[in-house]
Amino acid sequence: MIRVCLAGATGWAGSELARVIAATTDLTLVSAVGRRHAGSRLGAILQEPRLTCQVYASAEEALSTSCDVFVEYTKPDTAKDNIRKALDHGAHVVVGTSGLTDQDYAELDGMAQRLKRGVLACGNFALTVVLLQRFAEMAAQLIPHWEILDYAHEDKTDAPSGTVRELASRLARVRTPTAPVPIGETVGPPEARGATVAGSQVHSVRLPGFVIGAEIIFGMPDQRLSIRHDSGTSARPYVDGALLAIRRVNQLIGVHRGLDTVLEL
Ligand SMILES: NC(=O)c1ccc[n+]([C@@H]2O[C@H](COP(=O)([O-])OP(=O)(O)OC[C@H]3O[C@@H](n4cnc5c(N)ncnc54)[C@H](OP(=O)(O)O)[C@@H]3O)[C@@H](O)[C@H]2O)c1
Protein backbone atom coordinates (compact mmCIF):
# COMPACT_ATOMS: atom_id res chain seq x y z
CA MET A 1 0.00 0.00 0.00
CA ILE A 2 1.44 3.39 -1.01
CA ARG A 3 0.62 6.07 1.58
CA VAL A 4 -0.15 9.39 -0.08
CA CYS A 5 -0.41 12.95 1.26
CA LEU A 6 -2.35 15.11 -1.18
CA ALA A 7 -1.82 18.88 -1.03
CA GLY A 8 -4.71 20.63 -2.76
CA ALA A 9 -7.10 17.71 -2.17
CA THR A 10 -10.12 20.01 -2.03
CA GLY A 11 -9.29 21.80 -5.30
CA TRP A 12 -10.49 21.20 -8.85
CA ALA A 13 -7.71 18.81 -9.85
CA GLY A 14 -6.90 17.40 -6.39
CA SER A 15 -10.47 16.45 -5.50
CA GLU A 16 -10.90 14.41 -8.69
CA LEU A 17 -7.64 12.61 -7.94
CA ALA A 18 -8.66 12.00 -4.30
CA ARG A 19 -11.94 10.37 -5.34
CA VAL A 20 -10.17 8.01 -7.72
CA ILE A 21 -7.49 7.15 -5.14
CA ALA A 22 -10.33 6.16 -2.78
CA ALA A 23 -11.37 3.50 -5.28
CA THR A 24 -7.88 1.97 -5.70
CA THR A 25 -6.61 -0.99 -3.72
CA ASP A 26 -2.91 -0.07 -3.71
CA LEU A 27 -3.02 3.62 -2.73
CA THR A 28 -4.31 5.18 0.47
CA LEU A 29 -4.66 8.86 1.32
CA VAL A 30 -3.23 9.39 4.81
CA SER A 31 -3.45 13.19 4.94
CA ALA A 32 -4.56 16.15 2.85
CA VAL A 33 -3.81 19.88 2.63
CA GLY A 34 -6.27 22.73 2.08
CA ARG A 35 -6.77 25.82 4.23
CA ARG A 36 -10.51 26.42 4.08
CA HIS A 37 -11.45 22.88 5.15
CA ALA A 38 -8.65 22.37 7.66
CA GLY A 39 -9.77 20.23 10.58
CA SER A 40 -12.42 18.33 8.56
CA ARG A 41 -12.36 14.78 7.22
CA LEU A 42 -11.67 14.86 3.48
CA GLY A 43 -14.50 12.38 2.82
CA ALA A 44 -17.05 14.71 4.40
CA ILE A 45 -16.07 17.50 2.03
CA LEU A 46 -15.87 15.36 -1.11
CA GLN A 47 -18.86 13.16 -0.18
CA GLU A 48 -16.66 10.06 -0.40
CA PRO A 49 -16.85 8.10 2.88
CA ARG A 50 -13.78 6.01 1.98
CA LEU A 51 -11.60 9.13 2.38
CA THR A 52 -11.16 9.11 6.14
CA CYS A 53 -7.99 11.23 6.33
CA GLN A 54 -7.90 14.69 7.85
CA VAL A 55 -7.37 17.96 6.01
CA TYR A 56 -4.60 20.19 7.41
CA ALA A 57 -3.99 23.87 6.74
CA SER A 58 -0.34 23.37 5.75
CA ALA A 59 1.96 20.75 4.30
CA GLU A 60 4.08 20.92 7.44
CA GLU A 61 1.14 19.79 9.59
CA ALA A 62 -0.04 17.16 7.09
CA LEU A 63 3.46 15.67 6.87
CA SER A 64 3.41 14.89 10.60
CA THR A 65 1.53 11.78 9.40
CA SER A 66 4.14 9.67 7.64
CA CYS A 67 3.65 9.17 3.89
CA ASP A 68 5.51 7.54 0.98
CA VAL A 69 4.45 10.02 -1.71
CA PHE A 70 3.52 13.68 -1.39
CA VAL A 71 1.39 15.04 -4.23
CA GLU A 72 1.65 18.80 -4.79
CA TYR A 73 -1.52 20.21 -6.35
CA THR A 74 -1.90 23.66 -4.71
CA LYS A 75 -0.63 26.92 -6.20
CA PRO A 76 2.71 28.08 -7.63
CA ASP A 77 3.47 30.36 -4.66
CA THR A 78 3.37 27.52 -2.11
CA ALA A 79 4.47 24.60 -4.26
CA LYS A 80 8.24 24.89 -3.93
CA ASP A 81 8.19 25.21 -0.17
CA ASN A 82 5.79 22.25 0.11
CA ILE A 83 8.07 20.10 -2.07
CA ARG A 84 11.10 20.98 0.07
CA LYS A 85 9.19 20.06 3.24
CA ALA A 86 8.02 16.77 1.76
CA LEU A 87 11.57 15.83 0.74
CA ASP A 88 12.79 16.76 4.22
CA HIS A 89 10.21 14.36 5.63
CA GLY A 90 11.56 11.54 3.44
CA ALA A 91 8.71 11.43 0.91
CA HIS A 92 8.95 11.08 -2.84
CA VAL A 93 7.08 13.89 -4.60
CA VAL A 94 4.72 14.12 -7.55
CA VAL A 95 4.24 17.71 -8.75
CA GLY A 96 1.09 18.64 -10.65
CA THR A 97 1.18 22.34 -9.76
CA SER A 98 2.30 24.56 -12.58
CA GLY A 99 4.42 27.69 -12.42
CA LEU A 100 7.74 26.40 -11.08
CA THR A 101 10.73 27.50 -13.15
CA ASP A 102 13.71 25.57 -14.49
CA GLN A 103 15.75 27.28 -11.78
CA ASP A 104 13.32 26.04 -9.09
CA TYR A 105 13.64 22.51 -10.41
CA ALA A 106 17.42 22.76 -10.56
CA GLU A 107 17.46 23.68 -6.85
CA LEU A 108 14.99 20.92 -5.96
CA ASP A 109 17.04 18.43 -7.94
CA GLY A 110 20.09 19.10 -5.75
CA MET A 111 18.02 18.47 -2.63
CA ALA A 112 16.31 15.35 -4.00
CA GLN A 113 19.64 13.86 -5.16
CA ARG A 114 21.16 14.46 -1.75
CA LEU A 115 18.20 12.82 0.02
CA LYS A 116 17.92 10.05 -2.63
CA ARG A 117 14.28 10.79 -3.29
CA GLY A 118 12.40 11.15 -6.57
CA VAL A 119 10.49 14.23 -7.74
CA LEU A 120 8.32 13.64 -10.79
CA ALA A 121 6.99 16.93 -12.14
CA CYS A 122 4.37 16.88 -14.86
CA GLY A 123 3.03 20.23 -16.05
CA ASN A 124 0.19 18.23 -17.54
CA PHE A 125 -0.70 14.62 -16.79
CA ALA A 126 -3.00 14.23 -19.82
CA LEU A 127 -1.93 11.56 -22.31
CA THR A 128 -2.59 13.87 -25.27
CA VAL A 129 -0.09 16.36 -23.81
CA VAL A 130 2.52 13.68 -23.25
CA LEU A 131 2.13 12.77 -26.92
CA LEU A 132 2.25 16.42 -28.04
CA GLN A 133 5.56 16.82 -26.20
CA ARG A 134 7.00 13.71 -27.78
CA PHE A 135 5.81 14.55 -31.31
CA ALA A 136 7.13 18.11 -30.96
CA GLU A 137 10.56 16.82 -29.95
CA MET A 138 10.59 14.64 -33.05
CA ALA A 139 9.59 17.57 -35.29
CA ALA A 140 12.17 19.91 -33.72
CA GLN A 141 14.94 17.55 -34.78
CA LEU A 142 14.04 18.28 -38.41
CA ILE A 143 12.48 21.77 -38.36
CA PRO A 144 14.38 24.70 -36.76
CA HIS A 145 11.51 27.25 -36.72
CA TRP A 146 8.61 27.10 -34.26
CA GLU A 147 6.48 29.16 -31.91
CA ILE A 148 4.18 28.04 -29.09
CA LEU A 149 0.64 29.14 -28.19
CA ASP A 150 -0.61 28.67 -24.64
CA TYR A 151 -4.40 28.82 -24.13
CA ALA A 152 -6.16 28.98 -20.75
CA HIS A 153 -9.22 30.26 -18.92
CA GLU A 154 -9.32 33.97 -18.09
CA ASP A 155 -8.56 33.61 -14.36
CA LYS A 156 -5.44 31.47 -14.62
CA THR A 157 -2.85 33.56 -12.79
CA ASP A 158 0.38 32.02 -14.02
CA ALA A 159 1.67 32.42 -17.56
CA PRO A 160 2.81 30.60 -19.49
CA SER A 161 1.22 27.38 -18.24
CA GLY A 162 3.30 24.60 -16.74
CA THR A 163 2.47 22.55 -19.82
CA VAL A 164 4.08 25.11 -22.10
CA ARG A 165 7.08 25.80 -19.85
CA GLU A 166 7.76 22.08 -19.84
CA LEU A 167 7.38 21.88 -23.61
CA ALA A 168 9.76 24.81 -24.19
CA SER A 169 12.31 23.40 -21.81
CA ARG A 170 12.20 19.98 -23.48
CA LEU A 171 12.59 21.52 -26.94
CA ALA A 172 15.60 23.50 -25.70
CA ARG A 173 17.33 20.17 -25.19
CA VAL A 174 16.73 19.34 -28.85
CA ARG A 175 17.86 22.69 -30.32
CA THR A 176 17.31 26.45 -30.09
CA PRO A 177 14.78 27.63 -32.69
CA THR A 178 16.06 30.21 -35.14
CA ALA A 179 14.30 33.56 -35.69
CA PRO A 180 15.30 35.32 -38.92
CA VAL A 181 14.50 38.71 -37.29
CA PRO A 182 15.96 38.78 -33.74
CA ILE A 183 13.27 39.73 -31.18
CA GLY A 184 15.29 42.78 -30.06
CA GLU A 185 15.17 44.13 -33.60
CA THR A 186 11.38 44.01 -33.82
CA VAL A 187 9.91 47.19 -35.24
CA GLY A 188 7.17 48.00 -32.71
CA PRO A 189 6.71 46.57 -29.18
CA PRO A 190 8.89 43.43 -28.88
CA GLU A 191 6.22 41.97 -26.51
CA ALA A 192 4.12 41.48 -29.62
CA ARG A 193 6.48 38.61 -30.44
CA GLY A 194 5.65 36.89 -27.14
CA ALA A 195 7.93 35.89 -24.27
CA THR A 196 11.12 33.96 -24.82
CA VAL A 197 10.85 30.83 -22.65
CA ALA A 198 13.82 28.46 -22.76
CA GLY A 199 14.58 29.83 -26.24
CA SER A 200 11.06 29.43 -27.66
CA GLN A 201 8.66 32.31 -28.40
CA VAL A 202 5.52 31.72 -26.32
CA HIS A 203 2.19 33.55 -26.68
CA SER A 204 -0.22 33.14 -23.74
CA VAL A 205 -3.93 33.65 -24.38
CA ARG A 206 -6.16 34.02 -21.28
CA LEU A 207 -9.83 34.18 -22.27
CA PRO A 208 -13.23 32.84 -21.23
CA GLY A 209 -14.11 29.89 -23.41
CA PHE A 210 -10.72 28.19 -23.02
CA VAL A 211 -9.86 25.57 -20.41
CA ILE A 212 -6.26 24.51 -21.03
CA GLY A 213 -4.65 24.06 -24.42
CA ALA A 214 -1.29 24.16 -26.08
CA GLU A 215 -0.28 24.40 -29.70
CA ILE A 216 3.08 24.34 -31.36
CA ILE A 217 3.48 25.57 -34.92
CA PHE A 218 6.50 24.50 -36.94
CA GLY A 219 7.17 26.49 -40.09
CA MET A 220 9.25 25.70 -43.14
CA PRO A 221 9.20 27.32 -46.57
CA ASP A 222 5.80 26.58 -48.10
CA GLN A 223 4.78 24.13 -45.39
CA ARG A 224 3.55 24.24 -41.82
CA LEU A 225 2.86 21.72 -39.11
CA SER A 226 0.57 22.40 -36.11
CA ILE A 227 0.30 20.05 -33.15
CA ARG A 228 -2.42 20.98 -30.69
CA HIS A 229 -3.91 19.64 -27.50
CA ASP A 230 -7.17 20.86 -25.93
CA SER A 231 -8.66 19.64 -22.70
CA GLY A 232 -12.32 19.82 -21.72
CA THR A 233 -13.82 21.14 -18.52
CA SER A 234 -13.38 18.14 -16.21
CA ALA A 235 -10.21 17.24 -14.34
CA ARG A 236 -10.54 13.62 -15.42
CA PRO A 237 -7.78 13.76 -18.13
CA TYR A 238 -5.19 14.36 -15.41
CA VAL A 239 -6.12 11.49 -13.10
CA ASP A 240 -4.66 8.45 -14.86
CA GLY A 241 -1.31 10.16 -15.40
CA ALA A 242 -1.18 11.29 -11.78
CA LEU A 243 -1.91 7.76 -10.55
CA LEU A 244 0.88 6.39 -12.73
CA ALA A 245 3.27 9.03 -11.39
CA ILE A 246 2.38 8.18 -7.77
CA ARG A 247 2.95 4.48 -8.42
CA ARG A 248 6.31 4.97 -10.17
CA VAL A 249 7.98 7.95 -8.47
CA ASN A 250 9.69 5.76 -5.87
CA GLN A 251 11.80 4.28 -8.68
CA LEU A 252 13.39 7.70 -9.31
CA ILE A 253 16.10 9.79 -7.68
CA GLY A 254 16.27 13.54 -8.33
CA VAL A 255 13.92 15.69 -10.38
CA HIS A 256 12.40 14.19 -13.54
CA ARG A 257 10.10 16.19 -15.76
CA GLY A 258 7.31 14.80 -17.89
CA LEU A 259 5.23 11.68 -17.51
CA ASP A 260 7.07 9.93 -20.32
CA THR A 261 9.95 9.49 -17.86
CA VAL A 262 7.91 6.61 -16.44
CA LEU A 263 6.04 5.60 -19.61
CA GLU A 264 7.45 3.18 -22.13
CA LEU A 265 6.87 5.24 -25.28
N1 LIG B 1 -0.31 18.72 -13.95
C1 LIG B 1 -1.56 18.71 -14.39
O1 LIG B 1 -1.96 17.84 -15.20
C2 LIG B 1 -2.52 19.76 -13.89
C3 LIG B 1 -3.90 19.63 -14.09
C4 LIG B 1 -4.75 20.58 -13.52
C5 LIG B 1 -4.23 21.63 -12.79
N2 LIG B 1 -2.87 21.74 -12.65
C6 LIG B 1 -2.26 22.79 -11.81
O2 LIG B 1 -2.50 22.39 -10.44
C7 LIG B 1 -2.62 23.54 -9.62
C8 LIG B 1 -3.97 23.48 -8.89
O3 LIG B 1 -4.99 23.67 -9.84
P1 LIG B 1 -6.55 23.62 -9.43
O4 LIG B 1 -7.27 24.05 -10.63
O5 LIG B 1 -6.89 22.30 -8.80
O6 LIG B 1 -6.61 24.79 -8.32
P2 LIG B 1 -7.73 25.00 -7.20
O7 LIG B 1 -9.04 24.43 -7.60
O8 LIG B 1 -7.67 26.44 -6.82
O9 LIG B 1 -7.20 24.13 -5.96
C9 LIG B 1 -6.08 24.50 -5.20
C10 LIG B 1 -6.03 23.63 -3.95
O10 LIG B 1 -4.88 23.97 -3.19
C11 LIG B 1 -5.26 24.47 -1.90
N3 LIG B 1 -4.36 25.58 -1.59
C12 LIG B 1 -4.10 26.67 -2.36
N4 LIG B 1 -3.20 27.47 -1.76
C13 LIG B 1 -2.87 26.86 -0.60
C14 LIG B 1 -1.98 27.19 0.47
N5 LIG B 1 -1.27 28.33 0.46
N6 LIG B 1 -1.86 26.33 1.49
C15 LIG B 1 -2.59 25.18 1.51
N7 LIG B 1 -3.46 24.82 0.54
C16 LIG B 1 -3.60 25.65 -0.49
C17 LIG B 1 -6.72 24.91 -2.08
O11 LIG B 1 -7.44 24.89 -0.88
P3 LIG B 1 -7.63 26.26 0.00
O12 LIG B 1 -7.81 27.38 -0.97
O13 LIG B 1 -8.79 25.96 0.86
O14 LIG B 1 -6.36 26.39 0.74
C18 LIG B 1 -7.22 23.81 -3.02
O15 LIG B 1 -7.44 22.61 -2.30
C19 LIG B 1 -2.46 24.75 -10.56
O16 LIG B 1 -1.12 25.15 -10.54
C20 LIG B 1 -2.83 24.18 -11.92
O17 LIG B 1 -2.25 24.90 -12.98
C21 LIG B 1 -2.02 20.84 -13.18
Question: Can you describe what's shown?
Answer:
The chain has 265 residues and is an alpha/beta fold. It is built from 8 helices and 12 strands. The strands form 2 sheets. The chain has a 7-stranded parallel sheet, with helices on both faces. The chain has a 5-stranded mixed sheet with strand order 8-9-7-10-11. Helix 4 (76-88) runs parallel beside helix 5 and helix 6 packs parallel to helix 7. The longest helix has 16 residues, at 127-142. The chain is elongated, with a radius of gyration of 19 Å. The model has no long low-confidence stretch (mean pLDDT 95). Bound molecules: NADP nicotinamide-adenine-dinucleotide phosphate. NADP nicotinamide-adenine-dinucleotide phosphate binds at residues 8, 10-14, 33-36, 73-76, 78, 96-99, 122-125, 162, 238.
Task: State mean pLDDT (0 to 100 scale).
Answer: 95
Please list the strands of the largest sheet in the order they lie side by side: 3-2-1-4-5-6-12
Q: Helical stretch count?
A: 8
Alpha-beta classification: alpha/beta
